[in-house]
Amino acid sequence: MAKIVPKKNLIGTLTEASGVFKACARKSKILAALAWKPEVVHEFYLKKESVLPKPTYSIDKKEISDLLVALKEIELKLKGDHPMLAWLRRTLESYQQGLSLLVSVGTDSFFEISSQMYGNSKTKLFKGETTNLDLARAISQRISVCSLNDIGESFVQKSAAEFASSLEERIKKRAPMIPLKVEVTDTIASKVVAGMNKVKLRKDARFSDLELDALWNHEVESHCLTAHNGNRHENADFLSAGGPRTTMTQEGLAVFYEVYAHTMSQLRFLSLCNRVEAVSLVENGASFLDVYRWYKERTESSLDAFFNTQRIFRGANLSGGGPFTKDVVYLPGLLSVYNFLKYAVKNQNRVLVETLVCGRMALEDVSTLAWLRTHGVINPPHFIPDWLKNWEGLLSFFSLTAVFDGLDLTNIQDYFDEHLLHDWDVAI
After folding, report:
1. 127-132 long-range CB contacts below 8 Å, 24 or more apart?
2. Which pLDDT does position 151 carry in this prediction?
3. pTM, entire model
4. By the 8 A CB rule, do 358 and 229 touch?
5. Is the Cβ–Cβ distance between 259 and 218 less than 8 Å?
6. Are the beta carbons of 200 and 193 closer than 8 angstroms?
7. Residue 176 preceded by cis peptide, ω within 30
8. Alpha carbon 338 to chain centroid distance?
9. What confidence tens digit (pLDDT) does each residue in 157-189 have?
10. What pLDDT is recorded for position 2?
11. Which of 43, 376, 415, 425 is 20 to 30 A from 107 via CA?
12. What's the Cα-to-Cα distance from 111 to each of 121, 304, 358, rounded to whole Å?
């Protein structure tokens, strides 16, 4: 039976759409557009942490209008039932949402659009009953059972400059090397932000040795890697960014590698849970000052509390009610990627797994892109993360978890209580 090869006119449409999408990604970087200037934090502390910050945003609405027109024009060429066209339409709609989000900064519709793009604390997982907030609380409650005094995280803190030096050395040793620069800056809220060609470290942040491993896996071996792989596609180099709709899968993939490589600390996991809790607080009316005080009880410094709070209020009304919800995606993203990998490995579908790192994509795109790869439209991944290089290890891990998931172990806690733990109560 002959293969069904995409027609030349479809490839031409893909290439044309790719150019428009790449322009959208380049000219409308959401996190950069919503970043706060350094003087905002300085003024906050000058006013004794008692007055709402006053961030300003430089949104070029004319440029956004031009991009929306370009998207509307290409949309007319994406009509049809072909899976590739459906994928391009999903991507187009995502860029339209992202551009609309920027236009809505500071308005009542900002939260609504943000929720459409990323979900919010009340979003239900896989159309079930469990919400993002339920998942975050389940993880944080389980971690709280353990003593945080026993964490294995190194408390020897490095400065951003020292950390940058260590990161640069590691980049040089990678084979093949991902072309990447490291920059120390005071213009970001996160401790680390990674683009395709640059990793930015917040100047005042400090880092442990464990964070070097975790951030290497999260930023370099996940975010930077998929961006560079996506940029290598002749007909679809917009996969270096993918659009806002890819955020959950990309963050989930990065968090999965942190966990799978045993570089996810308890404090890091709790911080991801706290982000969802903070979004929920703002949804329920908490102001910037309310969340800042809440974070001060959960972070090592007041500056960390400020930056964690800032993440939730980027582009939003600081009086509360409508947060920027991007920070809810990490945990459902992890759950989604974990279950995708479990499914793909169970079916021995290595092409499907490799396609996941061919660029920045959403899970719902993987099947279509794998099909395009088999027809030579999408390239195999040039850069492979270590977790995927060890295919046998991946098979063993998911085979074991699949078996364990299917066992009836409802009485295991009673067994341990009876046979292992009771002797500790006996005095010598």
Report:
1. 132/276, 132/328, 132/331, 132/332
2. 53
3. 0.92
4. yes
5. no
6. yes
7. yes
8. 14
9. 889 999 999 999 999 999 999 999 999 998 887
10. 42
11. 43
12. 12, 24, 31
Determine the pLDDT at residue 193. 85
> How confident is the model at residue 424, as a pLDDT?
57
- Quick check: helix, strand or coil at residue 407? coil
Q: How far apart are CA 390 and CA 377, in angstroms?
A: 26
Tell me the CA end-to-end span of the chain in Å, nearest whole number: 78
Residues of the chain scoring pLDDT < 70: 1-7, 147-156, 421-428
Name residue 331's amino acid. Answer: L
pLDDT given for residue 277 in this prediction: 98
User: Backbone phi, then psi, for 301, in 5-degree steps?
Assistant: -145, 160
Domain ranges of the chain: 8-406
Distant-in-sequence, close-in-space partners of 123: CB < 8 Å, separation ≥ 6:
115, 131, 132, 328, 332
Contact between 304 and 334 under an 8 Å Cβ cutoff? The reply is no
Cβ(198)–Cβ(151) below 8 Å: no
Percent of the chain with pLDDT over 70: 94
Tokens of 162: 């020292």
CA angle 339, 344, 348 (to 5 degrees): 145
